[in-house]
Design a protein that fits this description.
Blueprint (H helix, E strand, L loop, with lengths): L1 H24 L3 H63 L5 E3 L2 E5 L7 E6 L2 E7 L7 E3 H6 L6 E7 L2 E15 L2 E11 L5 E3 L1 H4 L2 E5 L3 E6 L3 H9 L8 E2 L17 E6 L6 E6 L1
Parallel strand pairs: 4-9, 5-8
Antiparallel strand pairs: 1-2, 2-11, 3-4, 3-7, 6-7, 6-12, 7-8, 10-11, 10-14, 13-14
Amino acid sequence: MASSDRNTRQANLGNHQDRAQIQASRPTTATRHHCLTRRPANHGSGIKYLLYPSLVLGLLWLAAHQLPQKTQQQTVQARPQTELESIRNENSPIEPQIIAGGVILQRDRTGYFKGTVIINDVPMPFLIDTGASHTTLPMGMANMARLPAGRSIQSQTAGGEVIGQLTRADSLKIGNAELRNIDVVTNQHLEEVLIGMNTLKHFRMTQTENSLTLVANSNPAQIDETERNLSSAQPPQPTETEDDEPADLKAPTRWKKSTVCDNAGLHCRTVYGH
């Protein structure tokens, strides 16, 4: 009987030890909770490790695309300025040199002598046209200078006869020389002023290969003598209307052109005179 009880106690003790071992081998609630709470952390770390390379690659891609665009934009912005300056230098007339009582004009790329004339205090571009009987203004510039409307006339230019309006400017300045109450013609087909012979007759003109010097001729006797020695040039013919009277027009000046060379014949210049 005692032996049976002892065996029963040993069996119970063994069962108890087995249950203890099984419980010890199972994770506790805290352990399971700890494991559950660590899983998201491990998952977040994985995403973080994936995001870092993606972010670096994105920054490198952005830098690789933005730098060429900025360089190209700077090149595109710089190029028009350079081209504009080049075009401006090619098309702009060479600045004239103002001298006492006149101006020295330089021949431009197109072969013309150009400068700036001031008519009634309004600056305007001009070119010398020895084939024009009268100084002729574009209609728009004449309006800017507030020139009064004049009679319709036919006047002679280097390109042929044109129809315009004969009017008068209070002031015409070329360089330091100023003419008062000078007759001019307006024309709607021009883009710049043509300085004609009725203005040029008041200047002594000396031309070299690439320059033209205009010096005001302030001697009235010489101007009158020039007008008396006009050759076969015909004055502008007025076109009369019912309300118009024949215009009192002066005949245009005809200059004599001569070439003067040195003894060796290497350097020559053209001189206009009467």
